[in-house]
């Protein structure tokens, strides 16, 4: 599914003549594609030139001057050099607005060593003046996001090439939590292939996808919110026990719970006034979501509304406000968990005795039992 400009760009990379090669620039929203480009270039350099030196710039302070200096340098021992400039929008931030700086930049790039290949990553829209300063004849790919309705098809296409298959829950979680960027999706799928048991590649599940999309210790805040509104105590307890103070935040969790409350309130209003489906999609902000995901979310929220009626939602809003004031005020972060468990958790689990240890979600035993 790569678009025509992307296919043409990689075709030119594969056919590139290294002697006096143009500067290569990747700009736009999906600049993660630079990793694929640099691997292709390295393989071609090694097979065509042999040994070469790689120099990487990552957007640190002062790297504009270091980069310009390196343009004029050459290695005493290894003739060919591969310069990779990542986050060029930071490195050359001050150049677009200065005619003098642009002239100097153009001069430095025009008089660079012949035995160099330069790859530039520029996140966002690059100005024509800056692009021409790098090289009037540069090889430029302006990337863009996938259309939202194309994300699932791209995941399936890439998965098929890698020999991966997902169950429906894993696939829809991947679609829901992936930015619409082709390179990002390719990289995550490659990570899934490398980090999972090959025996599972024909039936990958939700947990395996979560571990790659949200790596490291700590809870999965999205899964925790789903479990809270589903009143699934075992899942809630499991996620809360994974809390990592270095990466997790109860304040962020409050925001996600507030977002869910707002979604349920909107759906409640829509149902009360018999809102047409098209207007409901607009109200819920689901215009860019796949039809399957809309139906899935609607079914999920309808089920939650059977429990979270107007009065209970109002109680949740009151508790969220109380906790937000406390969390942003004098309450120490080490006390956030206990406050959450004593104030908000009982409201979410109230009367769900079958799911809660001890059968009394209003008691402080919940907090002590975690």
Structural overview:
This protein folds into three domains: 4-143, 3-Layer(aba) Sandwich (Rossmann fold), CATH 3.40.50; 148-213, Helicase, Ruva Protein, domain 3; 221-369. It starts with a helix and ends with a helix. The model is unreliable at 351-370 (pLDDT under 50). α5 (99-110) packs parallel to α6. β2, α3 (63-72) and β3 (81-85) form a beta-alpha-beta unit. With 370 residues, it is an alpha/beta fold. It has 18 helices and five strands. A five-stranded parallel beta sheet has the order 2-3-4-1-5, with helices on both faces.
Largest sheet: 5 strands, parallel
Helix percent reads: 55-70%
Q: Widest sheet: strand order? A: 2-3-4-1-5
Instruction: Give the helices and strands as they follow along the chain.
Output: HEHEHEHHEHEHHHHHHHHHHHH
Low-confidence stretches: 351-370
How many extended strands? 5
Rg of Cα set: 26 Å
Tally of individual domains = 3
Summarize the structure.
By secondary structure, this protein is α/β, with parallel strands linked by helices. Helices cover about 55% and strands about 10% of the residues. Strand 2 (about 55), helix 3 and strand 3 (about 80-85) form a beta-alpha-beta unit.
List keywords for this structure.
370 residues, alpha/beta, Rossmann fold, Helicase, Ruva Protein, domain 3, 3 domains, five-stranded parallel beta sheet, 18 helices, elongated, disordered C terminus
Write the layout of secondary structure elements.
Blueprint: H1 4-15, E1 24-28, H2 34-48, E2 53-57, H3 63-72, E3 81-85, H4 88-91, H5 99-110, E4 116-123, H6 128-134, E5 139-143, H7 151-162, H8 168-177, H9 182-195, H10 206-213, H11 221-230, H12 233-241, H13 250-272, H14 277-284, H15 291-305, H16 310-328, H17 336-349, H18 365-369
Parallel strand pairs: 1-4, 1-5, 2-3, 3-4
Helix pairs in contact: 5-6, 7-9, 8-10, 9-10, 11-12, 11-13, 13-15, 13-16, 16-17
């Amino acid at each position: 599914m790569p678009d025509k400009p992307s296919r043409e760009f990689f075709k030119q990379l594969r056919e590139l003549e290294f002697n006096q090669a143009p500067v290569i620039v990747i700009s736009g929203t999906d600049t993660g594609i630079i990793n694929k480009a640099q691997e292709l270039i390295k393989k071609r350099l090694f097979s065509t030139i042999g040994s070469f030196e790689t120099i990487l710039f990552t957007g640190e302070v002062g790297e504009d001057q270091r980069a310009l200096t390196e343009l004029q340098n050459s290695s005493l021992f290894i003739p060919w050099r591969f310069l990779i400039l990542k986050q060029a929008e930071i490195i050359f931030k001050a150049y677009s607005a200065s005619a003098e700086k642009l002239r100097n930049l153009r001069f430095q790039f025009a008089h660079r060593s012949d035995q160099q290949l330069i790859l530039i990553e520029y996140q966002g829209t690059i100005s024509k003046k800056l692009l021409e300063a790098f090289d009037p004849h540069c090889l430029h790919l302006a990337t863009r996001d996938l259309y939202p309705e194309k994300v699932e098809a791209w995941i399936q296409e890439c998965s098929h090439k890698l020999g991966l298959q997902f169950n429906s829950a894993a696939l829809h979680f991947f679609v829901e939590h992936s930015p619409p960027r082709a390179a990002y999706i390719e990289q995550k799928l490659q990570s899934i292939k490398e980090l999972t048991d090959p025996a599972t590649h024909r039936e990958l599940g939700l947990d395996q996808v979560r571990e790659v999309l949200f790596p490291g210790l700590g809870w999965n805040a999205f899964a925790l919110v789903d479990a809270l509104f589903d009143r699934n105590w075992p899942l809630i307890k499991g996620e809360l026990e994974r809390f990592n103070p270095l990466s997790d935040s109860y304040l962020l969790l409050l925001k996600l719970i507030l977002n869910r409350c707002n979604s349920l309130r909107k759906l409640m209003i829509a149902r009360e006034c018999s809102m047409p489906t098209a207007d409901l999609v607009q109200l819920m902000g689901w215009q860019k979501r796949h039809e399957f995901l809309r139906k899935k979310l609607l079914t999920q929220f309808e089920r939650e509304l059977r429990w979270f009626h107007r009065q209970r939602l109002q109680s949740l809003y009151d508790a969220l406000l109380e906790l937000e004031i406390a969390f942003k005020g004098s309450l120490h972060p080490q006390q956030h968990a206990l406050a959450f468990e004593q104030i908000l958790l009982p409201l979410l689990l109230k009367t769900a005795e079958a799911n809660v240890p001890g059968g009394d979600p209003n008691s402080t035993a919940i907090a002590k039992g975690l």
